[in-house]
Each structure stands twice: as C-alpha cells, then as structure tokens.
Amino acid sequence: MWPDEFSFIFDEAEEVTLDSDAGKRDDGSASEAIHRLALKVRLSQEDYERIWPFAEARHRLQGKFAGKAVTLIVNNPHYSRWHPADGGIVKSVTESGRTYSTRYVVIHFLLDDVGEVAGA
Asked: How far does the chain reach from its first CA to its final CA, in angstroms?
C-alpha cells in the first residue's frame, strides 16, 4: 500500500497516457512502442526526495484511485522521456519579509488496475 502520509501527492494528479513510437535504441536494437496510463504529478523537490525510496516498486492506492496501483518511474530506460523533469521555481515571501524559493519537479507514476485473486 502507498503510505498514508504521502497520499496528498495524488490530490492534484492528472491522468495521462505515455505514448512513444517504436524506434531504435542507442545500441542499435529496436525499442517497442509505449502506450501506458500514468499519473502526472507536480510536487516540491523536497517531497520528491521523501518519496524517492518508493521508486520502481508497485504500490496500491486508496481513496480517489482505489483499485489502482502505481509505480514511480525514475530510472527505467523505457520511460526516460518521463523521468523527473523541471517543474519550475516558485518564489515566495514569509510574513517577516524574507524571500525564499521552492523548486518543483514533474514526475510520473505508471497506473495499473489491481487484480484480486479469488479463491475457487
């Protein structure tokens, strides 16, 4: 299960399809076309670093995406186009007048249906 303390990450998640045509890899071999459902999320660099340990593992979701499972893609070469990308910087000012910046990243989670095994 996805940890409850990080469930806020999916509050503003956008369902997208990752598409790429078949092509050639750097080593000359053929790559397959990709057509996968995913969740696109923009979150702070700090939150991204906190969820990094969950990368490349499949986790079931609850709430809005109950019955679904996600896999945070970060290093898989098949999805290199969708690895964490720059999500911009937001500059803010504290109540005391101090200026600070928050860096954001855009990440993708592969999205799958969860199939339950039923006893016969």
From this structure: 25
User: Do 68 and 110 meet the contact criterion of CB atoms below 8 Å apart?
Assistant: no
Q: Which amino acid, one-letter code, is at 86?
A: D
The sign of the torsion formed by the CA atoms of 55, 37, 14, 80 equals positive
Residues 6+ apart with CB under 8 A from 89: 101, 102, 103, 104
Residue 30 pLDDT: 64
**4 compared with 26, residue with greater pLDDT:** 4
Is residue 117 predicted with pLDDT exceeding 60?
Answer: no
- Please check whether residue 30 is in contact with residue 23, taking contact to mean a CB–CB distance below 8 angstroms: yes
- The structure's pTM equals 0.80
Other residues' Cβ atoms within 10 Å of the Cβ of residue 117: 4
Long-range CB pairs of 75-84, under 8 A, 24+ apart, other chains included: 78/31, 78/34, 79/18, 79/34, 79/108, 79/110, 81/18, 81/20, 82/18, 82/38, 82/108, 84/48
Classified as helix, coil or strand, 89 is strand
For residue 39 the two structure tokens come to 């969740």
